[in-house]
Amino acid sequence: MSENTHENEKQLNELLKVRRDKLFDLQSKNKNPFEIVKYEVTNHSAEIKEKFEEMEGKEVSVAGRLMSKRVMGKASFCDIQDRDGKIQSYVSKNDVGEEPYAEFKKFDIGDIVGIKGVVFKTQKEEISIKAHEITLLSKSLQVLPEKFHGLNNQDLKYRQRYVDLIVSPEVKEVFIKRSAIIKSIRDFLDKKDFLEVETPMLQTIAGGAAARPFITHHNALDIDMYMRIALELPLKRLIVGGLERVYEIGRVFRNEGMSIKHNPEFTLLELYQSFTDYYGMMDITEGLIRNAANDVLGTTLVNYQGINIDLGKPFERITMVDAVKKYSGVDFDDINSIEDARNIAKEHGVEFEERHQKGDILNLFFEKFVEDKLIQPTFLMDHPVEISPLTKRKPDKPDYTERFELFIVGREFANAYSELNDPIDQRKRFEHQEELRRQGDDEANMIDEDFMLALEYGMPPTGGMGMGIDRLVMFLTDAASIRDVIFFPTMKPL
């Protein structure tokens, strides 16, 4: 430990002791701030500033965190931070009384306080509150980082989000926008007569996506259960039941690696609409994103990490075969056997496994040569059937499916299908997935017999779409990492 670090820790410990001593002193005088259970707040900072002309001279009551204090003898200024921002208060001994003023001077930065007073403007034209009463509502026993060594460690910002929100207004703004984005999505779908529903997070079969699940145990039933990896199969059951248009926004859980794009638990939107197809889902997806940008940002022109994206233009549409041909020069329509596919993969340095079929290898080509090239919004269409176990085949090209993925800035944002509603074909696809599991693919789908039974009762032609909310929030708030848009991202314990 360096000498400076040791000295800083010593200084911090002394400051923490002083705060606790102040609390004990208050408690000894029967002025314990933690015994206060209620404080009436009549206004917030932004409202006072925005409506100053009508509020000037009126009494208000505000509450928040003490962020700065400038003591000047018999009068002082302080800044209070509430949910909307900061507002200055003028506190003088003549207005609040000698004893309350003496107590105010002992308040620490970070304390929660309430102020009652009159709205006015200082000689420097700053809108403020002239306090006639100030109350300590909660004692802060920790030192805010900006007053000591700063909250500069990114890992610590994620672990102590509560501190990050206090000292970083721009972080709070991201999460306010996140809430607005989700509200915009709900409003958009509600206006299209979609019904918001809730489905189980605990499931006996993990289905609806190619992902490794978290496993838990239900003691009363004495069975292992899975945290859901997708919302798909329960929502399709509701389509079978005749609800026609349903959506859910909820947490899903995937037991896989973490990165700037992945968190083990994340928020997913899935929606299903009877009597439409994946073209209908393209229209909804494009409209939903464009509407969210307009609602939250006021524009369809988005700059993400220095890249200008135009959401106002119609999104490009290209098949996976054509995209691979465009960027790699290989036309998979000319490849007629698995042997030819494997040979062309070897020629282009595309690594594959023995279990991979032609469609799998096409997808590997896409991942290597195409994915990072799709910068402007692009619907990548018509995926091979091998990687689309829940999707309808294309009538004119049965080796491919009516599926799309939306890519922006080289990242997947949405995945959608013309949903497979043929129970016989679906069982064959599930059986193929089970064989892949036996071969070691623990992300392959399991057979869900109850879902198969539902399909046998009859599911109408249906379009479905899934979208990661966190990635959309990242994009619309210019966040570099998914951890920047999740209040409490998954972290390895210290």
Fold and architecture overview:
With 494 residues, this protein is an alpha+beta fold. The chain has 2 domains: 3-145, Nucleic acid-binding proteins (OB fold (Dihydrolipoamide Acetyltransferase, E2P)); 167-315 and 376-484, BirA Bifunctional Protein, domain 2, CATH 3.30.930.10. The chain contains 16 helices and 20 strands. The strands form 5 sheets. An 8-stranded mixed β-sheet has the order 6-10-11-20-19-18-15-14, with helices on both faces. The chain has a 5-stranded mixed barrel with strand order 1-2-3-5-4. α8 (169-191) crosses α16 and α11 packs across α13. The two termini are 19 Å apart. The model has no long low-confidence stretch (mean pLDDT 94).
Brief description of this entry?
The chain has 494 residues and is of the alpha+beta class. 36% of the residues lie in helices and 26% in strands.
